[in-house]
Records
---
Amino acid sequence: MRSFITPVGEEYPFGGPGKFILGTVQAMAEQLRQEYANTVDLIYIDPPFGTGDGFSVKLPGVREKVKIPAYSDSMDTASYLEMMCGVLTLCHDLLKDTGSVYVHIDYRMCARIRLMLDEIFGESCFQNEIIWAYKSGGRSVRHYSRKHDNILFYRKSAKAYFDISAVGVPRGPMKRNNMKRTVDENGKLCFSIRSGGKTYTYYEDTPVYPSDVWADIEHMHQRDPERTGYATQKPEALLRRIISASCPEGGLVADLFGGSGTTAAVAAKLNRRFLTIDASPASLGIVRKRLLSAGCDVSLIKQSSALALSYPALPEGEFDTDFTFSRDAFGAYVQLDSFRSKFGLSFMAFGTVGSDGVFRPAEYTLFPTVGSRLSDSACKADTVQLCDNAGGMRFYRG
Ligand SMILES: C[S@@+](CC[C@H](N)C(=O)[O-])C[C@H]1O[C@@H](n2cnc3c(N)ncnc32)[C@H](O)[C@@H]1O
């Protein structure tokens, strides 16, 4: 059966609130300026680091030998810096006066990107170079092991929103520095220290605010339930801290190199809106799966959490499939009869394409297999969507 229609996007009543757009930042820049200039509260970007490597998706159940391509990080330095200059200028244009940007980078490009940010945002808008220190990965004997990433934090203006109280962690029962561990007049454990003739007292639950060295957040381990299989995925805890401190509730968080959708997933959980861009079809597939799985949990308590996925060009997958469409007084149905797919199937939906070219599923399943059957009790659905693990997709009308 051949691909029949080419929708421009998908819409779900939950999984958001937010939008994912498939495309390069460069290609999207002017459209983003028109739609979002001066409206974004926080931008987090985790662009390629200039490693020269290719990255893939590793999914349980998909044969090891089958490499699912995610993206390649192989630009020469001059092209990379030219791209980043455009991206950082775009970030400046999209942010509100109260907004901030966090640029996640490592030792390779950090110095050059910092100078670029100084130029674009102004040196006075530099806030922090956050050192995210971790223990994972191998150890070098040729030099000291490189065990941190750099996150450059700039504000757009002196009016920037920043709430350190949102990211405090309880001090805990451990004695720190040379503080005295004692008990107050109510029998409550506390720590005190004298300085400049004054006594300072802290309790176990007194919050401690993070410094610019973040060593309390580890990379995800191999079996971490957060893992989506997308290479270079960052832990949610990292984004939780950034979003909680630098975006007010209900605000808009943008990620222009969205990857597995960590920023979007955390923004939704923290009651912020999101805008995610990524050039990789594999990212689109993983983000869809991740947000819909999360959205299913919260859909009963959250009313307005629509998710929109938009793809100016349809990434066609490499697979052959066959379906049976049927209809009776109780609904419209589709059944997957067979498929041959290089990367394995990840998603199947049954719905309608509106006059705006957007596909709206009545029902979907995240793990279709032969025999999977979807229905629409409103009898309207006539289009089935099938996606593979590399993000390729096709739409068929019955
Ligand atoms: C380091 S990964 C981001 C990982 C993400 N923070 C996460 O937690 O999953 C970088 C992403 O940038 C995307 N990318 C690379 N060049 C791009 C471009 N020019 N425009 C948009 N996305 C791009 C890649 O497809 C990849 O998903």
---
Amino acid sequence: MSRFDLSVLETAPKLPGKPRHKTREVKVGDKVFGGDNPIWVQSMTTTDTFDVEGTVKQIHALEEAGCELVRVTVPKPEDAGALSEIKKRIGIPLICDIHFDYKMALAALDHPVDKLRINPGNIGGIDRFRQVVRKAKDRGLPMRIGVNAGSLEREFNEKYGFPCPPAMVESCLRYIEIAESEGYHNIIVSLKSSDVLVAVEAYRLYAKLADYPTHIGITEAGKPPYAVTKSAAGLAPILLDGIGDTIRVSLLGDPVPEIAACFDILQATQRRVRRPELIACPTCGRLAIDLEKIIAELEQRLEGRKLPVKISVLGCVVNGPGEAKEADIGIAAGNGQGMIFRNGEMVRKVKEEEIVDALMVELADWEATNQHRLPKTKDAEGLGRRKLPLVTG
Ligand code: SF4
């Protein structure tokens, strides 16, 4: 007889994971946001948009890193004039970012952009917002209503006392209703704050009330590496709650590292698995093999492989066999040897220098026997052991 209430455990789900926030689909260029579509990774240029060469060069670098949509700022009329040329020279959807001047939004909409982002808190009032909505509707273009805690309208700050989650969500819902009253539903929503707790709660609150897809991010996260950790701390609970249809990690400086950070966060939360998941211990005085060397070689040989496979490589027998059993392919090291596990069973032993080759052989075999589940995108759960979902997009 335990002094704890074990019935809590009996009813707890064995395979954790919340379903995705049900959102309607909104098309942005060749990407569809929402529904069961992948959570798209986006970034924003840091160049002067009027500098077409510099902006296109940065967008190409972002594309090379895997960026799937890009946003440029449009603060002056010359920037709007540059949009057509930029769009011609890039391969991903182009989003223009508007603050303060609704005329810039109207000007941008005269160019072949794929989406508009406006901040309703600083666009200059409801009439101006309506004018932008009408033109976006005429052009058939989607718009992000990007509420930001730092620029919330005074009336919501006064009503709630400060830019708290309910204040942000009420502001957002009001603009949604205004857009809907114009017959416009091509909406994506963001509720950003530089405060992780505020952002997480704002998205949670929004997801209870509305079904437009969400762009998620922790704004003004600052300088890496802390900014990456802070973004992960905020984005993980949002993603684990099933919320988010497109993601940006905002880093001070070069935007290219934002892309890897986004994909890592999506991979770790299992919302978009695009590569093998490597489980490796931190090592300690019990280490029985050169684990760093093995992992480095393995990473190199797995480069570019889009497989939802869990590979565990642990440095000794303390947790090695246990982790290896839970992985699809596992190695538990001991005395310069590696015990290879497949689906929970020990299949053979190999010498330390043969570990990487042996793992690659097992991987080829795993790939051949799991072909049937590779094309599926929502196969999040296997029988007993948890299977990684492959959501490559
Ligand atoms: S698995 Fe072994 S070597 Fe690795 S950290 Fe744990 S005890 Fe240390």
